[in-house]
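Students often ask why we bother encoding 3D structure as a string. The short answer is that it lets us treat folding as translation between two languages. Here is a chain of 142 residues written in the first language.
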Amino acid sequence: MKEQEDQQKKDKTGQGQDQKNWLEWLVFSVSLLMLLTIVGYLVYQAVQYKPEAPEIYAEAVADPSELAPNRYKVTVSNQGGTTAEEVIVEFKLYKAGEELEASELQIAFAPKESQREGWVIFSNNPADADSVVARVVSYKKP
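And here it is in the second language, the structure alphabet:
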């Protein structure tokens, strides 16, 4: 009987319930703040999103090796706001205004604001040419 009275007194005063300590409240507050920050950032990105076309640029730099002396390292950059698929880049060697040789590089996937690397190998020596011209031939939007 005495135990029941003690239990009823605890229930009335609120001492029978678990009290949260300051550390639990701190963890809860920090977690809630982080969650609201992430949700706010995602909402902001969704509202501010403006679709832009891919902007594809290609750059070739001589990168000879022992087994491939006529090799060029190619960097394909997508500085646009949309991903590009099946990027085709064409390279041509010119001497005295005439095309000596053409080569092609295909990049399967170029995400927005990214760079991809590849190599092209010519059968003719690029040192014999006046210039090497790189141009993006085509790409698709996914």
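Translate back mentally: DSSP finds two helices and six strands in the chain. Keep this in mind for the problem set.
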